């Protein structure tokens, strides 16, 4: 314990305590992480192999104009000096990691691992081959954020919420919830871990998985009451200038929970991950007045009618929903869903457009 980490022995060797034992630190990655923990080094200031020519000049010009009210430098040496003064370039004339992530023209060419892998799975489990929607989100940090938010919102249910039939439905979960969680995932992740942020959408939840566990002595309990620890200070400083939606250190988690209390957080120190899980409501909760599809034999006809209506609502909310996914939501078997769907097709209430794989459903008004 102590504030002077990392510690050296008399021979200048750094030792890492592992349980009751110890071992030598013998890799650059471990050494960087130790200095990062002690606050003597930050991953976003790491130099890259990208020169000033890799800068997205239009994006940086707009940022200078909107935030600092100044023009883009005319001369290359003036541009380099400005980038260095803004902590976006190193003394040897290369962009640092923060400069590439925020203002690089094609950051994925320089740092391909720092992206977002987004997948919409059918059901509630990860599938090896089956998915309903997938996208690798790359580009500057602001573009990744916007694309990740759009991916989530297009895969959420839309609910009527008392609005007229001609009014667009409202998303089942407010967009502001995911704004806060995505900003945290992109800005506070551990950039010493060469892995993408993963975004998984299931029927019953959305998972945002960030590389790197909580830094230093932070715990889930501490972040829930507003404590924070800045892992990437350059990124945080520019996000605070309006690059991404930002409302102050330590307030994002609390704001997300105020808007949607059904969120769990997991600090996985063994797997070096931080996971935010947003739990979705079931169809019963989203559609008022609907009851469980299970019924007694005496009410089977009435129950069948309700199941048909719920299938129609599911198709309206997600035309690409599979019968397996609908069965998991409704609590019935895939065979039972097929029986009801075939009945609806025979009644000309729904129809299939395109092939069995890759097509979608349509409700016939």
Q: Mind explaining what this structure looks like?
A:
The structure is a single chain. With about 375 residues, the chain is an alpha+beta fold. It has 14 helices and 14 strands. It has helices at about 30-35, 55-70, 75-85, 95-105, 105-110, 140-155, 175-185, 220-225, 235-245, 250-260, 285, 300-315, 325-330, 335-345, and strands at about 15-20, 20-25, 45-50, 95, 115-120, 135, 160, 170, 195-200, 205-210, 265-270, 275-280, 350-355, 360-365. The strands form five sheets. Strands 6-5-9-10-12-11 form a six-stranded mixed beta sheet, covered by helices on one side. A hairpin with a 3-residue loop joins strand 9 (about 195-200) and strand 10 (about 205-210). The longest helix is centred in the C-terminal third of the chain and has 18 residues, at about 300-315. The N and C termini lie far apart (about 70 Å). The relative contact order is 0.09. Residues about 290-295 have low confidence and may be disordered.
Per-chain topology:
Blueprint: E1 15-18, E2 21-24, H1 28-37, E3 47-51, H2 57-68, H3 76-85, E4 94-96, H4 97-103, H5 107-110, E5 116-120, E6 133-137, H6 141-154, E7 158-159, E8 170-171, H7 175-187, E9 197-201, E10 205-211, H8 220-224, H9 233-243, H10 252-259, E11 263-268, E12 273-279, H11 283-286, H12 300-317, H13 323-330, H14 334-346, E13 350-353, E14 360-363
Parallel strand pairs: 5-9
Antiparallel strand pairs: 1-2, 3-4, 5-6, 7-8, 9-10, 10-12, 11-12, 13-14
Helix pairs in contact: 6-7, 7-10, 12-14, 13-14
């Amino acid at each position: 314990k102590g504030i002077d980490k990392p510690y050296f022995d008399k021979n200048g060797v750094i030792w890492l305590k592992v349980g009751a034992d110890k071992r030598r630190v013998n890799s650059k990655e471990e050494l960087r992480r130790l200095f990062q923990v002690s606050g003597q080094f930050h991953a976003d200031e790491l130099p890259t192999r990208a020169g000033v020519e890799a800068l997205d000049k239009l994006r940086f010009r707009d940022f200078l104009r909107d935030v600092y009210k100044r023009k883009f430098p005319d001369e290359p040496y003036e541009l380099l000096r400005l980038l260095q003064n803004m902590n976006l370039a190193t003394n040897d004339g290369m962009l640092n990691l923060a400069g590439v992530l925020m203002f690089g023209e094609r950051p994925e060419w320089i740092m391909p691992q720092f992206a977002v892998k987004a997948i919409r799975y059918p059901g509630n489990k990860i599938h090896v081959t089956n998915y309903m929607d997938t996208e690798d989100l790359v580009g500057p940090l602001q573009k990744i954020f916007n694309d990740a938010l759009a991916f989530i919102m297009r895969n959420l249910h839309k609910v009527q919420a008392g609005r007229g039939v001609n009014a667009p439905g409202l998303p089942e979960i407010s967009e502001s919830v995911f704004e806060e969680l995505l900003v945290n995932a992109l800005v506070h992740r551990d950039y010493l871990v060469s892995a993408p942020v993963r975004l998984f959408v299931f029927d019953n939840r959305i998972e945002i998985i960030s590389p790197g566990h909580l830094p230093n002595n932070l715990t889930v309990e501490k972040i829930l009451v507003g404590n924070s620890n800045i892992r990437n200070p350059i990124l945080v400083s520019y996000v605070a200038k309006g690059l991404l939606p930002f409302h102050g250190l330590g307030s994002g988690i609390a704001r997300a929970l105020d808007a949607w209390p059904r969120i769990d957080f997991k600090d996985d120190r063994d797997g070096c991950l931080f996971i935010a899980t947003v739990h979705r409501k079931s169809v019963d909760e989203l559609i008022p007045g609907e009851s469980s599809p299970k019924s007694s034999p005496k009410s089977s006809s009435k129950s069948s009618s309700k199941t048909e209506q719920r299938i129609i609502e599911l198709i309206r909310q997600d035309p690409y929903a599979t019968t397996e996914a609908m069965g998991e939501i409704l609590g019935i078997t895939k065979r039972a869903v097929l029986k009801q769907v075939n009945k609806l097709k025979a009644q000309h209430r729904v129809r299939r457009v395109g092939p069995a794989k890759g097509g979608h459903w349509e409700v016939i008004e």
